[in-house]
Amino acid sequence: MSSPSRRPLIAGNWKMHLNLAESVNLAKAIKDGSGAAPAEVVLCPPFTALTVVGEILKGSVVRLGAQDVCWEAQGAFTGEISAPQLGDCGCRYVIIGHSERRRLFGEADWQVQKKIKAALGVGLAPIMCVGETLDEREEQKTYRVLQTQLEGGLKEFAPAQLAQLVIAYEPVWAIGTGKTATPDQAQQSHLFIRKTVARLYSPQLAAGLRLLYGGSVKAENVDALMARPDIDGALVGGDSLKQASFLRIIHFKAPSEVG
Ligand code: PGA
Q1: 174, 194, 203, 209: least surrounded by Cβ within 10 Å?
Q2: Structural domains of the chain, count
Q3: Domain harbouring 63, CATH code
């Protein structure tokens, strides 16, 4: 189990799925089923559904998150959505630097850094994604890639500014592929990330930092992942769209309860 000082966090990344009616139905079902969940729960619908999902989640313990953010606060940036606008919709979290943004839309570490800064500036908690591709893993470059992403994305912050930061370790080869990192593989990378943050910033920040695993998290594997000491939660894609699976994921069981 992760340290009791770190509240588990499970976030559902709906990506570019669901129409408004489907978003409303799923959000209602998760809200209704989230009682007594051991984790803080966050739903990240597409921008177009933020307001309606936010209305449903009002007054519940389930939080609202977005999937991306612009680093500028306002202005002539056609197609972009700013951090103040996300706050205005009721968002508390925002995913930044997801591998799909990095890979398909060319997002680089310097952009991730600017987005994190914009989010923190308005009190939004960034869920910063890092992770290696299969080629990089096979070439034994996992730690080097993680280090580069952490150094670039977290450049020039003071430790106190990063108190709200959440980091998601998402090996690219495990996203949407049905191939999950083993709990051992995930734990090793999480430990490396925590140590790197301790070295770059402070041991206190690293000790309190919530590290999520992402990549084919399912009802069947969540308990084993969550049993590892440096895994504090999950960023769930595909199975966050399936009501029963996601409800089981947010109600993950500690090792002593599995039997
Ligand atoms: P997946 O996606 O759970 O479908 O693998 C995870 C993610 O991309 O955040």
Answers
A1: 203
A2: 1
A3: 3.20.20.70
Tell me, using a 6 A CB cutoff, whether residue 245 lines ligand 1: no
pTM comes to 0.96
- Residues 238-254: tens digit of each pLDDT: 999 999 999 999 999 97
Would you say the CB of residue 123 lies under 6 angstroms from ligand 1? Answer: no
259 confidence band (pLDDT: 50, 70, 90): very low
Q: Which helix (H) or strand (E) holds 32?
A: helix 20-33
Return the best residue to mutate from 175, 180, 242 for the ligand 1 pocket (most ligand atoms within 8 A of CB). Answer: 175
Burial of 78 (0-12, 13-18, 19+ CB in 10 A): exposed
For residue 2, being part of any structural domain is answered with: no
pLDDT tens string 101-134: 999 999 999 999 999 999 999 999 999 999 999 9
How far CA 198 is from CA of 21, 188, 258, in Å, comes to 44, 15, 33
pLDDT tens sequence across 147-171: 999 999 999 999 999 999 999 999 9
Q: Are 215 and 181 in contact, with CB atoms under 8 Å apart?
A: yes
